[in-house]
Design brief:
alpha/beta; Rossmann fold; phosphoenolpyruvate carboxylase, domain 3; seven-stranded parallel β-sheet; six-stranded parallel β-sheet; 19 helices; 15 strands; globular
Length: 527
C-alpha cells in the first residue's frame, strides 16, 4: 500500500493516445459522428484512464463527463463487461444518463433509483450495459445481496472526493476490485485526505489538469476575480460586540474545562465548537453533572456563534428570523432559555428590533453590481449560504429577471424545489428567459448549470472545494468574472483568508501531482 503521494506518483506510467480525431471531432465506433468536439486534454486523460484505474482532477466545466464517456466507449468496445456510474444526487445521475445517451451509440443504458422496486432493479441489472445510480441505492442492493459487481468492467465515481469515511462510495468500493475512473474538481488541500481517497478508490494513476496545463491552454478562458469590501454600520457593530462578549465568555468556560485549548482566544471556529460536543460526551461519560454543564455552555456558544455569523455575513433581518424561531419554539432547551434571558443577548435583540436601515451594507454593493451587469446584457449567478437571504436579495433587485434555485427540502423560508422544477429553471436559464440565478449550495456541485458571465459570492466560504465549484460556473466560453463581497473586520475576512490558504496549499499539491513541482523528499505533503 502506498503511504504518501510521492511514493504513489513514482510508479505512474503514461500511454499513447487511443482516440482518433477527424475534422475536429472524436471519431469512435460507439460515439455518434460529428458530435463530440476533440479536446487534447480530454483525449490525453481518457487514453491513460483506459489503461489503468485513474483519479481525474479537473476544474468544474472542463468536461469530466466527456472523459467518462470516452473511457466508457473504449471499455465497451474491448469487452462484454457492464459499466456502473455512481453520482451523489439523483439530478446528477439523470444528467450523466442524458449525456451518455446523447453521445453514445449503445443500447441498454439504465438509470436506477430508490423508488424503483428492488425486483425491477435486479431484472434491469441483468440486461443493462451501463447503469447510472446514486451510491446509496447500489450499496443497499449489495448489502442485501441482490446482485454483485463481478460483471462490472468499469466503475465510474463522480465527485470522488467524497470517497472517505462512511459515505456510500466506500461501501461500493470495498465490494469492487476492478477498473475505476474517479472524477473530481478538487480533492481538497489535506494530503492525508487525498491519500485516503486514493487508497479507497484503488487507483494507480492520477491525471491533474489546471488552466496552465499545456494541453488545456486554448480550450478554456480565464477568470478575473475581484473582492468588494464594505463595513458594518456603528449600530450593527454595537450588536456584534454584545453577542461576541457573550460568546467569548462561554468559550472561556469551556477552555477552563480543558476544551478548545488548541484554538487561539477569540479565534474559535464553528467546526471546533460543534466538535466539542462529542469531546464533552466522551470525557464526562461517568460524570453527568459536569457533562450537562459543559454541554449547556457548548450549546450556548454555538447559538451565539450562529447569531454572530448571520449578523456579520448575512444581515439584521436574517438574525432576527433566527431569534424569532428560537423564541417561538414550543419546547425550548435549557440552553436556549438561558441564552435568550442573558442581559447582553436581550440588549442585542432589542437593538435588532429597533434597527433602521438596510439589512446589511452588502445589499447596496450587490444591487449596484447586478444592475450594472444586467445593463450590459450579462448573465450571472449569485451564491448565498443562507436561504433566508434569497428573498431579501430578490426584493432588492425588483425589475430584474431573476429566479431562485434551492434544494428539494422544505426550508425555513418555504418549500424547496422539486427536481422537475430545478430542471425547468435551468432550461429557462439556458434560453436566457431570465438574467440572474440566485442559488444556495445546491448549485455548487456537479449540476449542469449554463456558463455565465459573472459569479457573485454574497459571502466568502472557508471551503476550497466549494469555492472552486462556484467559480467553475464562469469562464468556459469566454473570460469570466467572479466578485466576492467581504465585510471588513468580520468572519467574512476570516473565511476569505482560510479559504485562500487552503486553496494555495491545494494548488501546491496539484502542481506537485502534475509533476510541475515535486518535493523529492516527499515531506511537504506527507504531514
Amino acid at each position: 500500500m502506498q503511504t504518501n503521494i510521492y511514493d504513489f506518483l513514482k510508479n505512474q506510467k503514461k500511454v499513447e493516445q487511443r482516440f482518433h480525431v477527424e475534422d475536429g471531432f472524436v471519431c469512435h465506433p460507439l460515439i455518434k459522428k460529428d458530435l463530440m468536439l476533440a479536446k487534447d486534454f480530454q483525449i490525453n486523460i481518457a487514453s491513460n484512464a483506459v489503461e489503468s484505474s485513474t483519479l481525474v482532477v479537473l476544474p468544474t466545466g472542463m468536461g469530466k463527463t466527456i472523459i467518462a464517456i470516452l473511457v466508457a466507449a473504449e471499455k465497451i468496445s474491448e469487452d462484454d463487461g457492464k459499466i456502473l456510474m455512481v453520482s451523489p444526487t439523483r439530478p446528477l445521475t439523470e444528467q450523466h444518463h442524458d449525456s451518455f445517451e446523447r453521445f453514445l451509440n449503445i443500447e441498454g443504458m439504465i438509470m436506477f433509483s430508490g423508488s424503483m422496486k428492488p425486483e425491477k432493479r435486479v431484472e434491469e441489472w441483468k440486461k443493462a450495459r451501463i447503469v447510472f445510480s446514486t451510491p446509496q441505492t447500489i450499496n443497499n442492493d449489495l448489502q442485501k445481496e441482490r446482485y454483485d459487481l463481478s460483471g462490472v468492467s468499469l466503475l465510474i465515481v463522480d465527485e470522488a472526493h467524497r470517497s472517505v469515511g462512511d459515505y456510500a462510495y466506500t461501501g461500493i468500493l470495498s465490494n469492487y476490485h476492478g477498473h475505476v475512473l474517479a472524477l473530481t474538481a478538487s480533492p481538497g488541500g489535506d494530503s492525508r485526505k487525498i491519500m485516503e481517497v486514493i487508497e479507497n478508490l484503488g487507483v494507480d494513476n492520477i491525471e491533474v489538469r489546471t488552466s496552465d496545463a499545456e494541453d488545456v491552454r486554448g480550450h478554456i478562458k480565464g477568470i478575473n476575480i475581484e473582492w468588494r469590501r464594505t463595513e458594518l454600520p456603528v449600530s450593527m457593530k454595537a450588536i456584534k460586540d454584545l453577542v461576541n462578549d457573550y460568546l467569548q465568555e462561554r468559550v472561556r468556560k469551556l477552555r477552563k474545562l480543558g476544551f478548545l485549548r488548541d484554538s487561539r482566544p477569540g479565534m474559535v471556529s464553528k467546526k471546533k465548537l460543534l466538535k466539542t460536543r462529542d469531546e464533552i460526551l466522551k470525557k464526562y461519560i461517568r460524570n453527568k453533572g459536569l457533562m450537562f454543564g459543559s454541554l449547556h455552555n457548548q450549546a450556548q456558544a454555538v447559538q451565539a456563534d450562529h447569531m454572530l455569523e448571520l449578523l456579520e455575513t448575512q444581515g439584521v433581518i436574517q438574525c432576527r428570523m433566527y431569534i424569532d424561531r428560537m423564541r417561538k419554539k414550543m419546547k425550548k432547551t435549557k440552553a436556549e432559555k438561558g441564552f435568550l434571558k442573558d442581559p447582553r443577548i436581550m440588549d442585542s435583540i432589542n437593538r435588532l428590533e429597533k434597527y433602521i436601515g438596510p439589512s446589511h451594507p452588502k445589499l447596496d454593493l450587490l444591487e449596484d453590481i447586478v444592475r450594472s451587469s444586467v445593463e450590459k446584457g450579462e448573465t450571472m449567478i449569485i451564491f448565498t449560504q443562507i436561504r433566508d437571504t434569497i428573498p431579501l436579495i430578490m426584493d432588492r433587485l425588483e425589475g430584474i429577471r431573476i429566479e431562485r434555485f434551492v434544494g428539494q427540502s422544505k426550508g425555513k423560508d418555504g418549500r424547496g424545489l422539486k427536481q422537475k422544477e430545478q430542471k425547468e429553471i435551468l432550461d429557462r436559464f439556458r434560453k436566457r428567459e431570465f438574467d440572474v440565478l440566485i442559488a444556495t449550495s445546491v448549485a455548487e456541485e456537479g449540476i449542469d448549470i449554463p456558463d455565465v458571465d459573472l459569479v457573485l459570492f454574497y459571502e466568502p466560504i472557508p471551503s476550497e472545494i466549494r469555492t472552486i465549484q462556484r467559480r467553475g460556473r464562469t469562464g468556459r466560453s469566454s473570460t469570466g468574472k467572479v466578485i466576492i463581497l467581504i465585510t471588513s473586520g468580520t468572519r467574512d475576512e476570516a473565511y476569505y483568508w482560510a479559504e485562500g490558504s487552503r486553496e494555495r496549499k491545494m494548488g501546491r499539491i496539484m502542481s506537485w501531482l502534475s509533476h510541475e513541482s515535486v518535493d523529492q523528499e516527499g515531506d511537504d505533503y506527507d504531514e
